[in-house]
Amino acid sequence: MRLGANAPRLAVGLIRVSTAEQGNSGLGLEAQQASIRSFVAAQGWTMVAEYSDIASGKDDRRPGFQGALERCRQLGAVLVAARLDRITRRAHTLSQLLEDGVSIRAADMPGADDLMLRIYAAMAQKERELISERTRAALAAAKARGRVLGGDRGYRPAASPDAAAAAQARREAAERTAHRLGLEVDRLRAEGVEGHAALARALNARAVPAPRGSVAWTHTTVARVLARTRCIER
C-alpha cells in the first residue's frame, strides 16, 4: 500500500527494553513511547500503531519487531524508535531493512538519513565488540592472577522478594498492555469495525501481537482487553 503525494506520512512506533525488570517498571517503555510520539508529531506524521518487546536487540525474531515491520510494509509507513538500538543491535539487519525499502527513523537523531543510520549502527556494533573483547581480556588477566571469578559475591537482598509488590507490578504491566491494545481497538472502531469477532479478525490481519504471548486474537481476547480498559478508565 502506497499513499498519494499529498497524503500524510504514516508511522509505526517500536519500543524495546532488555529485561523483564525494565518492562515491569514501565519507566523505559513510557519514556520511549513519549519520545516517539513527540518526534512523530513534530514531523506532522500520523501514528497508526505501536509495538513493544521485552527482549535483547540481538534477537531479530522478537514478535513486536516482526509485527511492526509487517505493518510498515502493509502501509508504507515509517518505523520509528526512540533510539536506533531499540530497533536492532545488528548493523547488517539495519542495512538489510533499508535495502528492502523499509523507512527507519530514530527520535534522538531527527536529521539522520539512511546513510547516517548505517554508519551509526556499524560504529555502535564495533564499539560493543571492543567492549566485549576488553571484558574478556580483563577476566582472563584476573584469572591468571588467581582471582576467583563468579560464584556468590555477597550481593544478596536483605529481605525476601515482596510478593505484594510483585503482584502490583504485574497488574500495572497488564494495565499498560490493555491501554495500548485498547487504543488499537479504538482505531479499528473509528474505521467502522464493530463486534468482538470482527475486531479479532482485523487485529490478526494487521499482525497486532495479542496479549500474554497468545498466538492469535479471539473474540474472548478482545472482550477481556476491553473489560480491563474500562476498569482502568474508572
Automatic annotation (TrEMBL):
CDD domains recorded: Ser_Recombinase (cd00338)
Keyword terms, alphabetized: DNA recombination, DNA-binding
A UniProt-annotated Pfam family: Resolvase
SMART domains (UniProt xref): Resolvase
Domain named Resolvase/invertase-type recombinase catalytic: residues: 10-146
Cross-referenced InterPro entries: Resolv_N (IPR006119), Resolvase-like_N_sf (IPR036162), SSR_resolvase (IPR050639)
Protein's UniProt name: Resolvase
